[in-house]
Amino acid sequence: MALMITDECINCDVCEPECPNGAISQGDETYVIDPALCTECVGHYETSQCVEVCPVDCIVKDPSHDESEDDLRAKFERIAGN
């Protein structure tokens, strides 16, 4: 499942540089996560790095992008060019 950033985001800028896939960018009002690029850090780390650094816990699973661990790994391999 891809992640999403809720409207509780305080725009602290700590999540964007942590994303190994470049899925996080500044949106109109808060940061946003591109579900096509979000692998929840599968293929890179054991845990989602943006979630680890978020000081307000506003990064949650996006229910509109239900993906299994295998789906996330396949997405990682596609993004990485493997």
From TrEMBL:
SUPFAM superfamilies in alphabetical order: 4Fe-4S ferredoxins (SSF54862)
Record keywords: 4Fe-4S, Electron transport, Iron, Iron-sulfur, Metal-binding, Transport
GO CC terms, sorted: cytoplasm
Iron is among the record's keywords: yes
UniProt cross-references to Pfam families, sorted A to Z: Fer4_7
Keyword Iron: yes
Coiled coil region boundaries: none
Entry cofactors: [4Fe-4S] cluster
Domain called 4Fe-4S ferredoxin-type: residue spans: 1-29, 31-64
GO molecular function (one): metal ion binding
Gene3D superfamilies assigned to the protein according to its UniProt record, in alphabetical order: 3.30.70.20
NCBIfam families in the cross-refs: di_4Fe-4S_YfhL (NF033683)
Protein name (database record): 4Fe-4S binding protein
Phylogenetic lineage: Bacteria, Pseudomonadati, Pseudomonadota, Gammaproteobacteria, Chromatiales
